[in-house]
UniProtKB/TrEMBL annotation, chain B:
GO biological process: response to amino acid
Listed Gene3D superfamilies: 3.30.70.920, Winged helix-like DNA-binding domain superfamily/Winged helix DNA-binding domain
Domain of life: Archaea
SUPFAM superfamilies (alphabetical): Dimeric alpha+beta barrel, Winged helix' DNA-binding domain
Entry protein name: AsnC family transcriptional regulator
C-alpha cells in the first residue's frame, strides 16, 4: 500500500525521538511532560464511575450531552465573558485536538493559507496539511516575550492568509497575551478578513492575571473559533474531552465531520467533565497555586544559574535559552549525562530554536533535584 | 495570598522546605521569609514541626487509641480546667473538645494495649469530673494530616509528550 502524499509530507514529531531516548534510560527526571502531574479531581472520576454503574454507555448527541453543553456555556460566560448558545454554538469533542482537526477540515479548501503563530503545540501544521491547506509559519520573537505582534504578522505576509492559528497561554513558551496586546492582532484579523482559530486549552492556567479570549474583542466573535477542554485545567488528559465555541454555521460544518468520524465524544468522559465543571473549582484553584509556586521556583533557579529565561505567565512551561546554541545537542547531552529530560524548542516550530521547553508539571522534590543536576551540568 | 499565608501553606505541606526554597516559591526574599516564620512562631501560630510517621512500618509500633470522655461541669470547674489536667499526661497525644455525644476526644499513645488500658482506667477514669470513657483502639491509619499511607501511585505519564 502507498501512504498518501499528504501523510508523507508530515515528518514524525520531534517529541517522539526524545521520548524514545528518555525511555531507554533509568532514573530519568522528566521536565518534558506536556500534561499535569495531578490526577483528575476525585469527584469527577467518581462521576465517571457512577455513570458506568448506571449503565450510561450509549452514544450521546453528536454535539455532546445537552447538560454538558449548558454547563460549558455557563462556565465560559462566567470565566471568560464568552457568550455562546449551547444548542447552536458549542460542540464537544474527543480532546481539543479533535476540535482543532475538525475545524481545519471544516474551514479549509485546498490551497487555503493558514498562518500559524509559532513556536506552538505540534499539531497545527500537520493538521493544516492533512486538511489540504497550506501552512505559513509565523515565528514569534523572544524580544516580544513570544507574544504575537502585527510586525511579525506583516513580516511573514500573514495578511494574505485565510486563517490565523494562535495558542495563548502558549505551549511551549508559557507566554500569555493581554487584552491590550490582542487588540492590534484582532484589528489585523478584521482588516485582512482572517478567520482566527484560538487554542485556549491553558486558559485556566495563568498566574497573576486573568485570561482574555481574543473572541471577546470587538468584531471577533463572528470570525473566531475558540478551543478549550478539560485536559489541562482539570488534569483529565487521558479522558480525551474538549470543545469548540464558534458561530452556528461553523459549528454545523464541524459537526458534519465529527458526526461521521467520532459520532460523539466518549460518554464516560462527558459525565466526568460535567461534574468537573460543577464541583472542581477548588481543585483547579489548588492546582493553579501549586503550579505558580513551581513556576517561581524554576524561574528563580534559572536566574541563579545565569540562564536567560523570560517570565512565563501561563500554562506550565518556561522557555529558557539553551546554554549551548544548539538546543537539541544540549538536550540530548543533558539527558545522557544527568538523566534530566527537557525538550528542545525547535520541535515546536519556527522561533523555538536555541531554547528549551521546561515543564514544571512535576512535584517540587523532583524539580529541585532536576535543577541541581542542570546547574552542575552547565558548570 | 500574602507572604504569611503562603509560608503557612507551604510549611503545612512540607515543614522541611529551606528558607531559600520558600523564597523561590513565593517570590519573597529570604530575610522576609525568616522574619515571617519568626513572627508566626512568636505569635504561637506555628506550634511545632513534626514528621508524619506511618508507625506500621516501624518494628515496635506503639498502640494508639481514641478515648471519648464525658464530663460534668460545676461552678468551679470548666472544660478548660479538665483539659488542662488531662493534657499534662505524656500519654495524651491530642485533646479536643468536640460537639455531639461526648465532650472530649483524646488521642492516647502507649507501648502496649495493656498500657493504654491501664492509663485510661487508672489515670483518666478516676478524674472526678469524668463520668464515662469509651476507648477505641486504632487499627489502621489510611491518611493522616493530608498524607495518604498507601504505597503511592507511580507517575505513569509518558516521559516526554507534546
Amino acid at each position: 500500500m502507498n501512504p498518501s502524499e499528504r501523510t508523507q509530507r508530515v515528518p514524525p514529531s520531534g517529541i517522539r525521538r526524545f521520548f524514545e531516548l528518555a525511555e531507554e534510560m533509568d532514573d530519568v527526571i522528566s521536565l518534558g511532560v506536556g500534561e499535569p502531574d495531578f490526577t483528575a479531581p476525585w469527584s469527577a472520576r467518581e462521576a465517571a464511575i457512577d455513570s458506568l454503574e448506571r449503565g450510561r454507555t450509549s452514544y450521546t448527541a453528536n454535539r455532546g450531552m445537552a447538560e454538558l453543553r449548558e454547563a460549558i456555556a455557563t462556565t465560559v460566560d462566567e470565566q471568560y465573558d464568552l457568550d455562546y448558545d449551547p444548542d447552536e454554538e458549542i460542540i464537544v469533542t474527543a480532546g481539543a485536538s479533535e476540535a482543532i482537526d475538525v475545524a481545519f477540515r471544516a474551514l479549509l479548501d485546498p490551497g487555503d493559507r493558514v498562518a500559524v503563530a509559532q513556536p506552538a503545540y505540534i499539531s497545527y501544521v500537520p493538521g493544516v496539511i492533512f486538511a489540504g491547506g497550506d501552512p505559513v509559519r509565523v515565528p514569534t520573537r523572544e524580544e516580544d516575550a513570544f507574544k504575537l505582534t502585527v510586525d511579525t504578522l506583516e513580516a511573514h505576509d500573514a495578511g494574505e492568509a485565510d486563517v490565523l492559528v494562535l495558542c495563548y497561554p502558549n505551549n511551549p513558551t508559557g507566554a500569555i497575551m493581554t487584552r491590550e496586546e490582542l487588540a492590534p492582532i484582532a484589528a489585523f484579523a478584521r482588516e485582512n478578513d482572517l478567520t482566527v482559530l484560538s487554542d485556549e486549552i491553558y486558559a485556566e492556567l495563568t498566574y497573576g492575571r486573568d485570561h482574555t479570549s481574543i473572541a471577546t474583542l470587538p468584531g471577533m466573535r463572528e470570525r473566531t473559533v475558540v478551543f478549550n477542554g478539560f485536559s489541562k485545567a482539570y488534569a483529565m488528559t487521558g479522558l480525551r474531552l474538549g470543545y469548540a465555541l464558534a458561530p452556528p454555521e461553523t459549528i454545523r460544518a464541524m459537526n458534519r465531520i465529527h458526526q461521521y468520524s467520532l459520532l460523539s465524544a466518549p460518554t464516560t468522559a462527558q459525565y466526568a467533565a460535567l461534574d468537573a465543571l460543577e464541583h472542581a473549582d477548588d481543585a483547579v484553584a489548588e492546582m493553579r497555586t501549586q503550579y505558580d509556586r513551581r513556576r517561581r521556583f524554576v524561574l528563580s533557579r534559572f536566574a541563579e544559574m545565569g540562564i536567560d529565561c523570560f517570565e512565563a505567565e501561563g500554562a506550565f512551561y518556561v522557555f529558557p535559552e539553551s546554554p549551548w546554541p544548539d538546543a537539541e545537542a544540549f538536550a540530548e547531552a543533558l539527558l545522557d549525562e544527568t538523566g534530566v529530560a527537557v525538550v528542545p524548542g525547535d520541535v515546536f516550530g519556527a522561533g523555538g530554536e536555541g531554547h528549551l521547553r521546561v515543564s514544571y508539571a512535576t512535584g517540587l522534590e523532583d524539580l529541585r533535584e532536576a535543577m541541581a543536576r542542570i546547574e552542575a551540568f552547565v558548570e | 495570598m500574602s507572604v504569611r499565608e503562603e509560608v503557612l501553606s507551604l510549611l503545612g505541606e512540607n515543614a522541611r522546605y529551606s528558607t531559600a526554597d520558600l523564597a523561590r516559591q513565593t517570590g519573597a526574599d529570604e530575610d522576609e521569609i525568616e522574619a515571617t516564620i519568626e513572627a508566626l512562631e512568636d505569635e504561637g501560630v506555628i506550634r511545632g514541626y513534626q514528621a508524619v510517621v506511618d508507625w506500621r512500618r516501624i518494628d515496635d509500633e506503639p498502640v494508639r487509641a481514641l478515648v471519648e470522655c464525658n464530663v460534668t461541669l460545676d461552678r468551679e470547674t470548666g472544660y478548660d480546667d479538665i483539659a488542662d489536667r488531662l493534657a499534662k499526661f505524656p500519654e495524651v497525644e491530642s485533646l479536643r473538645l468536640v460537639s455531639g455525644e461526648y465532650d472530649f476526644s483524646m488521642g492516647v499513645r502507649a507501648d502496649s494495649m495493656s498500657a493504654v488500658s491501664r492509663f485510661v482506667s487508672e489515670k483518666v477514669a478516676p478524674v472526678p469530673e469524668i463520668t464515662q470513657t469509651v476507648t477505641h483502639y486504632l487499627m489502621t491509619t489510611y491518611k493522616e494530616r493530608g498524607v495518604e499511607f498507601d504505597d503511592g501511585h507511580d507517575d505513569d505519564r509518558l516521559s516526554v509528550s507534546p
